[in-house]
Design brief:
This protein is of the alpha/beta class. Helix content is 40%, strand content 21%. It binds adenosine-5'-diphosphate. Adenosine-5'-diphosphate binds next to α8 and α14.
Length: 482
């Protein structure tokens, strides 16, 4: 821009300096010659012109530096934006929490050299095995700008909160993290994110995350739980093995399905009376193959066919979908609750969602029901449900195994014995286990049985001998098992 044109109001970039503020926008040659004439004649104006010159030069300089900075930002810096919707957002926050200055670390600098003055607290609660808890305060960089060093490069991280936009489902404000670094260090971004992901996975390693539906997305429900041991669920002979083998066989056959163009899906139905271990077994199975669980309640308020379809399409990787008590969702649908609410998932909506658009993504659905006879055959036909397994009341032999597990030396190590009498010898436990089996066989011949959950309850609260004595009293007659 020619310096004689002076700063115009269109400049935008540069703030007019004092010198230039006195100048008029000089546009046409006529006024220019008029001005220059006056200025040449008048010493004050000459001084003014000098000032103007400085002002113009300053403005130009300032603009050049702004342009230079923008240029440098464009050419030399790279930025990475992580919106709060993205999956790596919580991972990165967690990573920041792990590297930010923590209370008691003294110097106010984390391992990575975080420099922050605006911190936010994220409290997590750690439950110990014995039941006691401990609150852990993690200081994460709060909204604002922070710097940290990673892999020998400096990074700027801007955590911005949008005051106007709210995530309607969680009620938390929308946030964006913007990471900036020098262009030449751009290769560190993937490394950084991979590290953040690894860290996040480490904290759930050996644990099962239970997700529940939050509006149209899956959110972890509570903290990841310790995996349930397969051995802690005692099923009738062969049942657990059948399902586990089928599942493991399925998991190894992604390619087989893809080659044949078959949707890579498997459905399991566990049916049987309440307290037979359906849910516990699914938890243990998830733990055994290192999967998480997406729990979906079909009778849930506000769940519509569309949302259901959407949710089933968005299941986090390595997760089972668990539809509990599938029968009740539809018998309840007919009734309305006191406030006139009706569940709005329709049966055909469920079938559609289960069949979905053919996608190559793997999907494993578990359904449980206490009343298999109430289920519409369409729901459990092959393709929707591939494996049916009945988990019934305690079979006599199953009761014996649970008994030995509880009281025997090689049983659970972590069962709290409370006020139980000292443990008898293992041989005695075997003998008493046989006795329990015998009692249940007699009861079964009379059409009476007991659920595994009630047996567990009895074993928790009583000693071995007392349990043998009281087990008969727990048996009830079951006219229709399902
Ligand atoms: P369901 O889903 O069939 O109603 P759950 O899995 O919720 O049953 O079991 C309820 C309780 O009973 C749990 O505490 C579980 O540990 C115990 N339980 C039920 N069945 C078994 C089993 N087969 N082996 C061990 N524990 C069982």
């Amino acid at each position: 821009r020619p310096p004689d044109a002076g700063p115009s109001s269109l400049d935008g970039g540069g703030i007019p300096s004092e010198g230039s503020s006195s100048t008029l926008p000089v546009q046409d040659t006529q006024s220019e010659s008029f001005l220059s004439k006056i200025m040449a004649d008048n010493p004050y104006f000459s001084a003014g012109a000098g000032l103007m010159g400085i002002g113009v030069a300053l403005t130009a300089l300032r603009r050049a530096s702004t342009l230079g900075t923008t240029f440098a930002q464009r050419r030399l810096l790279v930025t990475l934006e992580i919106p709060s919707k993205d999956r790596s957002y919580p991972w990165f926050l967690e990573w920041m929490a792990a590297h930010a200055p923590q209370p008691g670390s003294g110097k106010g600098k984390g391992r990575m050299g975080f420099t922050s003055h605006e911190l936010a607290v994220e409290t997590s609660y750690k439950q110990h095995e014995g039941g006691s808890g401990e609150a852990i305060f993690n200081l994460v960089p709060g909204p604002g700008t922070h710097y940290f060093k990673y892999g020998g490069a400096w990074f700027q991280v801007k955590r911005e909160r949008d005051a106007k936009l709210m995530d309607l489902h969680s009620g938390s404000p929308w946030e964006t993290l913007t990471l900036t670094t020098l262009s030449r260090d751009r290769g560190l971004f993937p490394q950084l994110l991979a590290e953040a992901r690894e860290l996040a996975e480490q904290s759930t390693e050996g644990k099962t995350v239970v997700y529940t539906a939050w509006g149209v997305e899956w959110r972890p429900f509570g903290k990841p739980r310790r995996r349930r041991e397969m051995g802690s669920v005692v099923l009738a002979k062969g049942a657990a093995e059948r399902v586990e083998e089928d599942l493991k066989g399925f998991l190894g056959r992604a390619k087989w399905y893809a080659e044949r163009g078959i949707p890579y899906r498997r459905g399991y139905l566990l049916h049987g009376p309440p307290g037979s271990g359906k849910t516990s077994f699914i938890q243990a199975l998830a733990g055994a193959v290192g999967y998480n669980i997406c729990l979906l309640n079909l009778a849930e308020r506000g769940l519509t066919d569309d949302k259901l379809n959407h949710l089933l399409g968005l299941v986090p990787e390595r997760s089972f979908v668990l539809l509990e008590d599938v029968d009740s969702a539809f018998s309840r649908r007919v009734q309305t609750t006191e406030d006139g609410y009706k569940s709005s998932v329709t049966f055909s909506g469920l079938l559609n969602a289960l069949d979905g658009v053919a996608s190559s993504e793997e999907r494993i659905i578990f359904m449980t029901t206490n009343h298999v006879s109430r289920l519409d055959p369409a729901l459990i036909r092959p393709g929707r449900v591939d494996v049916h397994e009945l988990l019934g009341d305690a079979a006599p032999e199953q009761a014996r195994r649970l008994f030995v597990k509880f009281y025997g030396r090689s049983g659970f190590n972590d069962v709290q014995s409370g006020e139980k009498e000292p443990e008898p010898e293992t041989d005695d436990i075997q003998r008493m286990g046989d006795e329990v089996e015998q009692i249940l066989e007699e009861e079964a011949s009379q059409g009476r049985s007991v659920s595994m959950a009630s047996l567990q309850g009895l074993f928790i609260r009583s000693g071995a001998e007392e349990a043998v004595e009281s087990v008969r009293g727990l048996c009830t007659s079951r006219t229709s098992p399902e």
